[in-house]
Amino acid sequence: MSDTPADAGFVDGFAEGAVLLERRGPVAWVRMNMPDRRNALGLDLTAGLIRALDAVEADAGFRVMVITGSGKAFSAGGDLALFKGLVGGDDLDGFDRYLERGRAMFTRIEQFRRPVIAAVNGVTVAGGLELMLTADLVYAAASARIGDGHVKFGVIPGGGSTARLSRRLPFNVASDLLLTGRLADPVELAAHGLINAVLPGDQLEAHVQQTALHIAGHSTDGLARIKALHARARDRGLDDALATEVRALLDYARGPDLLEGLTAFVEKRAPRFT
Which family does it belong to (predicted)? Predict the structure, then answer.
């Protein structure tokens, strides 16, 4: 029997192009699809990602989103040829607009109401790493190589590496990646907690889909609230975070999902969340 959901398939308008959006049951698979450019985050690919985010956000049938890449790369980062044209052409306003668009996209993914999983299929560097850092969960193929890499070409981060990396890794480990520009084995990064699990390449998507389906079975509203609370607590004092959590729970109790979960527990059945 196939594990592919009956309603699997490309979403209308996403069967081809820089970004593919595929429905696998309640899981949205967003695939960067410019393998000849190692999924560099140029104008076309960034526009495709933004359009995919719009489509997932508008579709209540999607409960979890996965971001991955086609070919041998997850994403090799920003389009340095585009950088060269803008900086060399003295178009720093255009460079600023490009950077701001990317920054806003990364923040939107990080704050997305659905859980976001990065399925890191290959090389992940610079802006690709910054994209990966916006995900809630990260699973990587054993063959992937991951690092910051900006410094190798005289670039400094503009999409969040210096802001996010040390929030996910020990400071000195983050410094190593930022200052050497090296690409690390995912097993090394998993040991530091940056990656949830490392899989053989041919098992990555199946594992991620299974994990996503498990998450999708929970309350959509509950997941969104937990994700937001968890993110806020990282940058707040303990007392403030605890008080915010209690207020959120009381507000959540006004909706249907808490009562449904408690009723299911008492009745010894699986919850039926809407």
Answer: Belongs to the enoyl-CoA hydratase/isomerase family.
Q: In what order do the strands lie in the sheet with 123-125?
A: 73-75, 123-125, 146-147
What's the pLDDT score for residue 259? 87
- Rounded to two decimals, the pTM is 0.90
Alpha-carbon span 159 to 138, nearest angstrom: 18
pLDDT-flagged residues of the chain (< 70): 1-4, 6
pLDDT at position 1 is 39
- Return the pLDDT at 145: 97
Residue 268, phi-psi category: left (phi > 0), alpha (psi -120 to 50), beta (remainder): left
- Report pLDDT for 210: 96
- Residue closest to 62 by CA, chosen among 114, 26, 109, 31: 26
C-alpha dihedral (42, 154, 182, 66), degrees to nearest 10: -20
Gap between the Cα atoms of 48 and 36, Å rounded: 16
Instruction: Name the architecture of domain 9-216.
Output: Alpha-Beta Complex (3.90)
